[in-house]
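Incident log, support desk, overnight shift.

02:14 A customer reports that sequence design results differ from what the structure should imply. Their input is reproduced verbatim below. On-call engineer (initials T.W.) acknowledged and began investigating.
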């Protein structure tokens, strides 16, 4: 099979990078664009994130200095872009779960381009069925642990709560939450690293790894970064993580655990300079490299 058959899922497509290593059978990774932002509560625009990341990715160099290899050589297939379901987030989550299941056949590693953070729920549902011991590393400025928000349990402010109901979750970078969320964290003993943190880099990594299982899904909301380097998000929060801090954590986790999938979400390209979009594309590329580096 040289392509994914999404005949029952409305879609259209473009290619991450230049498409030169885009044969499905020969690719280790599948990039799945999901331009969905229907539950956004502040600034909309993350629906434009996947396409912007794909366009910016064409300007990336194939060779990565840090990893010392051509990351594109592992094969990066771009799946069709998943069309939004207008009947609501629950239906969209179901659609994403089906799309991830199709994309991950034959052991492919799926990287989702969001869209809002809601897209993560569908992916985690699928991977939990495949890997019973699944846990999730969740990088975000917000706790996202509300039982419901704006009368919906499926919105972007409840993503981590829904994931917690599926499998263990570890949160890093949080610097905004409600009283109710804080109480929930304490009652459920959810591992969480608030930011800024007094932990050293080594202690941070150890703290995170102790709470993660063998099989891990990594979800990265771009607002985990400080707005000085990532202002193109719908709900920015000051005093966030910096590029080296995020990358060192990601590389450490990918070395010590088996990452079965990941997502990069919440890019709103109209809210900041073009450099933010390029940074998001570079982050996706780095994740592909880190995961491939440790899987091979």
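02:41 Re-run completed on a clean worker. Output:
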């Amino acid at each position: 099979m040289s392509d994914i058959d999404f005949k029952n899922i409305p879609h259209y497509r473009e290619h991450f990078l230049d498409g030169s290593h885009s044969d499905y059978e020969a690719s280790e990774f599948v990039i799945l664009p999901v331009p969905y932002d229907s539950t956004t509560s502040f600034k909309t625009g993350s629906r434009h994130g996947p396409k912007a990341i794909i366009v910016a990715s064409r300007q990336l160099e194939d060779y990565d200095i840090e990893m010392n290899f051509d990351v594109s050589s592992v094969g990066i297939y771009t799946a069709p872009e998943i069309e939004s379901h207008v009947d609501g987030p629950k239906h969209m989550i179901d659609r994403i779960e089906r799309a991830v299941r199709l994309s991950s056949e034959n052991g492919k590693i799926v990287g989702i381009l969001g869209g809002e953070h809601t897209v993560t729920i569908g992916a985690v549902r699928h991977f939990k069925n495949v890997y019973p011991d699944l846990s999730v590393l969740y990088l975000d400025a917000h706790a996202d642990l509300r039982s419901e928000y704006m009368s919906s349990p499926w919105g972007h402010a409840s993503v981590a709560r829904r994931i917690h109901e599926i499998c263990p979750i570890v949160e890093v970078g949080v610097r905004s939450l409600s009283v109710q969320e804080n109480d929930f964290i304490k009652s459920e003993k959810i591992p969480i690293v608030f930011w800024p943190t007094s932990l050293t880099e080594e202690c941070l990594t150890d703290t995170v790894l102790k709470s993660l299982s063998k099989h891990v899904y990594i979800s990265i909301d771009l607002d985990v970064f400080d707005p000085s380097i990532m202002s193109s998000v719908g709900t920015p929060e000051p005093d966030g993580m910096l590029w080296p801090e995020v990358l060192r954590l990601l590389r450490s986790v990918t070395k010590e655990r088996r990452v079965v999938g990941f997502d990069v979400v919440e890019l709103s390209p109209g809210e900041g300079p073009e450099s933010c979009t390029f940074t998001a594309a570079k982050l996706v590329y780095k994740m592909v490299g880190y995961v491939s580096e440790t899987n091979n």
